[in-house]
Amino acid sequence: MRSCWVMKMAGKVYLVGAGPGDAGLLTLRGKELLKKADVVLYDRLVNPEILKFAREDAELIDVGKSPGEIPVPQDEINKLLFEKARENRLVVRLKGGDPFVFGRGSEEALYLAERKIPVEIVPGITSAVAVPAYAGIPVTCRGFCSSFHVFAGSEDVADKFDWKCISKLEGTLVFLMGVKNIDYIAKNLIENGKNPLTPSAMTMWGTTGMQKTVVSNLAKIAEKAQNAGIENPAVLVVGETVSLREYLNWFEKKPLFGKRILATGSGDDFPLLKELGAQVISCPTIKIVFDFEESQKALDKMMDSDLVIFSSPNAVKSIVSAMRKAGFDVRNLARVTLAAVGKRTAEILKENLLFPEILPEKYTSGDFLKAIPPSKRGGRALVITSDIGGKELVKGLEDLGYEAVKVAAYRNLPNAGEKWRILKEAEMGFDAAVFTSPSTFMYLEQLIEDLSFLKGKTMIVSIGPTTAKAIEKRGLKVDLMPEENTLEGIEKALLELWMGRGKYADFEKT
């Protein structure tokens, strides 16, 4: 008989570079590990969008440091990493940029190595290269320079530099996190021989929708940065390649750069808006909890129904999960008419080899009821929806002669975890706030009692009339509602509005 053995996984820590800010710059290896991690310790500058790659049940610990503040001392971070790994857990230490570039990652790795905790390093894209690139500034270029040099710009480090040596370097000089020290840096470079007319630039919040760059010569860059309100995180670049920004400034010239969109639904991606430079701040106000027990009970009801209606993508996901768990044979639904409310709902059904026969052109309950052919009307109807949805649909079906039953395949709960981020992002304002269901608005109101940030220049966008009615009932005005009540319809309407073409081109909230 072959002997069996089980290897118990020991704890391990992965120091993962999260990149400079843009969530798209996270490495594939970093994303893979986040999906597996039991524990994630993350820094202040890590984009919250990256944290969404983590498992839903992962333990997320904020150990971020702001300049002048130390919420969690470094020795406590070291101990946390050690303790979590010692519990035989997979730990990701998520650090801004690259873990070995001024991030104290080497200190953390040595601390763990000395205590026999396995450590793996996953490099990240450092802001020293990425931020200048997003500002249109190459750190090297044939004919300009063949080297670049990276320095910490903070006060406790810069006063130890050999400025005479640094000033003689012919390559591009890059200083990280040196906003408070910029005057000191420029002064020491000039006093030790660097030409005061050397092109210089400072970029804050590089690679994100909040990126801002100022350009001057070395003698005036400090004054210009201060007058422009440049704050950390920021990168200072000193060198002749700064002059190339005039030709290579690609990111800040995107047509929708600077537009900020609050997306309150779980699937609001808007890829075209992002590609054109808009910043989509995804803060789902609803937390979806699948009710697998109810979904499994629904399988028997589906076989006895004449019409089965899936009201949303989440309704499909919950039922398909129950099917897989129960080993349900889709041939049991051979005589059942399947229907979908919404294009995305239909797409997910088809991905799972379930093909809806009824899909209305417009995705409201009223339009769906009109789309049911007279030959299909009557009999038993099953509406698969959420705990708070389906009332209008059930009543409409009963009016058409159906014996209609609702199945709550999932529950909608307020997503309390997004409250802090919504409040923080609201301080910087939004150009548009998108609501894709009455629930997305209702739960925003529950999370954030004061909705004054939706007034003023913020354009309120509703996916359809039912959602608009819920918003206007609370005294707010819906500014934009697409003809096609889908995410694609919203994206098209915003593109037409902001790009100056199409039906919505003449509309702008004042």
From TrEMBL:
Domain Tetrapyrrole methylase per the UniProt entry, residue ranges: 12-221
Native source organism of the sequence: Fervidicola ferrireducens
Protein EC: 2.1.1.107
Spans through the membrane: none
Gene Ontology MF terms in the entry: uroporphyrin-III C-methyltransferase activity; uroporphyrinogen-III synthase activity
PROSITE patterns per UniProt: SUMT_1, SUMT_2
Record-annotated Tetrapyrrole biosynthesis uroporphyrinogen III synthase domain positions: 272-489
Xref: InterPro entries: 4pyrrol_Mease, 4pyrrol_Methylase_sf, 4pyrrol_syn_uPrphyn_synt_sf, 4pyrrol_synth_uPrphyn_synth, 4pyrrole_Mease_sub1, 4pyrrole_Mease_sub2, CobA/CysG_C, Siro_Cobalamin_biosynth
Keywords attached to this entry: Methyltransferase, Porphyrin biosynthesis, S-adenosyl-L-methionine, Transferase
Any single GO BP term: methylation
Family under the similarity heading: Belongs to the precorrin methyltransferase family.
Keyword S-adenosyl-L-methionine found: yes
Enzyme class: transferase
NCBIfam families: cobA_cysG_Cterm, PRK06136.1
Ubl conjugation recorded as keyword: no
A Pfam entry, by short name: HEM4
Name the UniProt record assigns to this protein: uroporphyrinogen-III C-methyltransferase
